[in-house]
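S., here's the first fold you wanted:
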Amino acid sequence: MMHRNQVKLLKEMMQADQFEIADRFANLPRACRLPVAAESREMIWADMIWIPPIKDKFVVLLAHSDTIWNDALVDLFFHDGRLLTNSLLTGTGADCRAGCAALWALRSTGHAILLTTGEESGCVGVSQMKSQYPEIIAAMSKAIALVEFDRRGKSEVVSYSHCTEDDLRIDMANDLGFTAGYGSFTDVVELESLTEVQGVNLAVGFYNEHTNEETLVVDDWWHTVSLVKKWLRNRVPKLEQYCWRKATLISSGKSYFDCWGDDDVDFMSNDLDQPVEQFESACPDCGELVEYYLDTAGDDLRYCTVCGWTNKDDEDDEDDDWLQSSNLFDKDIDADNQDWFGIDDESNGNCSKGGNCG
């Protein structure tokens, strides 16, 4: 059910610049400013914002404040459940201001929040964290999972590991009733390797990103936000950390994937005890040729580079659907959470890089 405050929040985020958004989050309790080094006089970034968790078992929720439009003033209008613009030069900025709005709506859940910047220019902000903010990386390494809000469409959860073991993506798809897929690159990819915690990216209702036809479907955004809030409340306390470790799978020498699994193995390495056999077959989803290998244990590892299908997807179809058997939908979300959109927090001030940000 659409609420006028949802539209108000989204318009505020989409019409603000990245500096105004950073200031808004910096005024929340426990917020820490993480300055990002400028790449040039023309490319100056807003601070990233880190808000440590209150809960012992926590998830890091993240989104980026920059857009491809370089903070151009966006003239928005609301029509037929969508936020649009008449501009011929810019889009709405819904990628990723929809994610910023999701973080704001979830700010009182007690989970950690990371507002990044520079994602559209190669994940500039998070790439500086290892050297500039190791204490924040150490704090995030204790998380159950990393959840980013920066995916087009509705009801999709994607990962970027293309793993033989991809627990978080599959579990969240089952828990939320979402489709599981794969993406290309975003901030959570960098953070996975820095924290050794698995991450995913969730669809937040924007479409036609990076074009002047970019739009945001408010109900699709709200669908994700409302489900995630209930997932954080009902499911996360029962979970253990989703660990990430690096291995490499090379297909015909053309590409490689960072992969979480039981063994750190290069399946094309000369160090294997026996040769790896290569086969080709048709993808059951899209019909394209799928290149795959038999590992030293005789198990096949298949991945379609066209649609993202893996042979593990078929095995996961038999998993129990926790969402349908739970009481996740036991309450009306609007009645249960009437304070999501207002400023109901009292600021305790900010801490700098040297503060107690962990």
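And the second, which I think is the more interesting of the pair:
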Amino acid sequence: MYEENADIKYELIPYDGFIGSKEFDFDKAIYDLNSQIELLSSQADNLDYVVAIASGIACGLLDILWVGEFDLANGRSIASDKVDAFVKKVVADAEAKAAEEKAAAAQATAEQPAVQQAAAEQPAKEQPAPQSAETQPEAENAEPAPAESRTPAQSGPDSEQPDMLA
């Protein structure tokens, strides 16, 4: 396998002797690179630099004369005032909401006796009349059956059941 690759032929051609190739054109590559460099390089002239310097000086003067000295204490007091105002607003909103809930609860309790009174005034159609001892069914007045005759469903945990294992 190494013997097959050992016979590679190569030839060095000096640039002066290079006629050119359709696949790779040096002149086109150089032109493309020069175009890209031109786009990335500064095109500013002296007037542009003078205008930039003048605007920097003007902004610096305005900052010194109009804005004044930089002071964190003044900034903190402004921020503190704004935070206090925000907290007061949130508390006022919460108190207003609580007052609305109280009013709604008071209104509901005021309406509740009226609802109870209206329910009491309606005739009791669905409620059965109380039964006297004479009209009650015999099953309620009857004595429970002896434990021997009870089925497991009728007997409970405290009922007397005969001991079947003995």
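Why I say that: Residues 2 and 158 are 102 Å apart (CA to CA). The chain has a mean pLDDT of 75.

Talk tomorrow,
H.
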